[in-house]
């Protein structure tokens, strides 16, 4: 009533000011931020927060990064904190691991994780094992990050998912973000962690914008490593995925709800340690499970999830066999039509869900 009385008694200009003031009291809409910018923000804030943090890799400095994730950081922090390296993954990964052993906190960018195979000795035999082999005396706080999995039109040399490869190795933590919130929160948590962390990003997601709240944009926002997130609640079937495939699962769930099927979509976020408890809790409610990943089927992330469900008490809640939706068991072809048939599509997920529910 007081607001109405003010409007009646005041002139038009004052009315506008009152309405504008009331408008700004309403909830503020989330800011649209691309995955690329979320990573850039996280890097910037952690470089500023801790002088031991530095970034090195191919073209990360003067060129602003091959995917512009490190844009502007070299101009702000200089050559000592943002370091361009030769095209030698074994060399600069070794430098980064040694720096971590000496007390620094390096972020080692691979231009693509396919080329991290050049540095596998440094990642596994040096970074992953040293803390254990030194009886806890030598921690290795390092982040290995860069694009992982299939891209578009780059054939077999650049289209491999390493989630299962690195998730296999004790001593590493492995995270796999989907959206901007994941990218920001997991990168900050990884940089602050005292263990070696492998962060598997996705090239096709870098330019995709997602809404981010003020809470997520806070400088101290982190996502706990090892905790999955329910992206969509449901009662009929549990869909478990990570990275870009989470979006496909959400699209499939949106289609299926029109047919009366409510899917619960779980974003793993972390491959190792894996949040099996969240999957089991969901499965006990839905009684059906489908896993989705872009990697190869044999010894994959989905295979591990199915094995853990089989070995645990949640197995008794399954009303049908769990099904895996994966990439094709072939090196990635170059032809666009063949490429599309090698990567899980929304229609493949819908087919798997209907098969599991026998509808």
Automatic annotation (TrEMBL):
Pfam families: Transket_pyr, Transketolase_C. Transmembrane segments: none annotated. The keyword Metal-binding applies. CDD domains: TPP_PYR_E1-PDHc-beta_like. Its cofactor is thiamine diphosphate. It catalyses: N(6)-[(R)-lipoyl]-L-lysyl-[protein] + pyruvate + H(+) = N(6)-[(R)-S(8)-acetyldihydrolipoyl]-L-lysyl-[protein] + CO2. The keyword Lipid metabolism does not apply. GO terms for cellular component: mitochondrion; pyruvate dehydrogenase complex. Its EC number is 1.2.4.1. InterPro entries: PDHB_mito-type (IPR027110), THDP-binding (IPR029061), Transketo_C/PFOR_II (IPR009014), Transketolase-like_Pyr-bd (IPR005475), Transketolase_C (IPR033248). GO terms for molecular function: metal ion binding; pyruvate dehydrogenase (acetyl-transferring) activity. PANTHER family: DEHYDROGENASE RELATED (PTHR11624), PYRUVATE DEHYDROGENASE E1 COMPONENT SUBUNIT BETA, MITOCHONDRIAL (PTHR11624:SF96). Heterotetramer of two PDHA1 and two PDHB subunits. The heterotetramer interacts with DLAT, and is part of the multimeric pyruvate dehydrogenase complex that contains multiple copies of pyruvate dehydrogenase (E1), dihydrolipoamide acetyltransferase (DLAT, E2) and lipoamide dehydrogenase (DLD, E3). These subunits are bound to an inner core composed of about 48 DLAT and 12 PDHX molecules. Interacts with DLAT. This is Pyruvate dehydrogenase E1 component subunit beta.
């Amino acid at each position: 009533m007081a607001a109405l009385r003010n409007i009646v008694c005041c002139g038009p200009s004052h009315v506008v000011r009152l309405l504008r003031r009331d408008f700004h009291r309403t909830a503020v809409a989330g800011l649209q931020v691309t995955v690329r910018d979320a990573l850039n923000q996280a890097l910037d804030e952690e470089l500023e927060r801790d002088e031991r943090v530095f970034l090195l890799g191919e073209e990360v400095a003067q060129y602003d990064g091959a995917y512009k994730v490190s844009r502007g950081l070299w101009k702000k922090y200089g050559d000592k904190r943002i370091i361009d390296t030769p095209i030698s993954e074994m060399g600069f990964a070794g430098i980064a691991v040694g720096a971590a052993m000496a007390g620094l906190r390096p972020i080692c960018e691979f231009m693509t994780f396919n080329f991290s195979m050049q540095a596998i000795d440094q990642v596994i035999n040096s970074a992953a094992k040293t803390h254990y082999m030194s009886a806890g005396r030598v921690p290795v706080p390092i982040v290995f990050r860069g694009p992982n999995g299939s891209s578009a039109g780059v054939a077999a040399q650049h289209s491999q998912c390493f989630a299962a490869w690195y998730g296999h190795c004790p001593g590493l933590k492995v995270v796999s973000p989907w959206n901007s919130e994941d990218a920001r929160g997991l990168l900050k948590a990884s940089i602050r962690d005292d263990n070696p962390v492998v962060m598997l990003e996705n090239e096709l997601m870098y330019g995709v914008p997602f809404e981010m709240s003020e809470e997520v944009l806070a400088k101290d926002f982190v996502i706990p490593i090892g905790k999955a997130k329910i992206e969509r609640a449901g009662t009929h079937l549990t869909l478990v995925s990570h990275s870009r495939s989470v979006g496909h699962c959400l699209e499939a769930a949106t289609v299926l709800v029109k047919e009366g099927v409510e899917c619960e979509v779980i974003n793993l976020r972390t491959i190792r340690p894996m949040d099996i408890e969240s999957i089991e809790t969901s499965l006990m409610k839905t009684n059906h499970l489908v896993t989705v990943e872009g990697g190869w089927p044999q010894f994959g992330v989905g295979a591990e999830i199915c094995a853990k469900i089989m070995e645990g008490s949640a197995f008794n809640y399954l009303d049908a066999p769990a099904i895996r939706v994966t990439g094709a068991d072939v090196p990635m072809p170059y032809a666009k039509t063949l490429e599309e048939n090698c990567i899980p599509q929304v229609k493949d997920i819908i087919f798997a869900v209907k098969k599991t529910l026998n509808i």
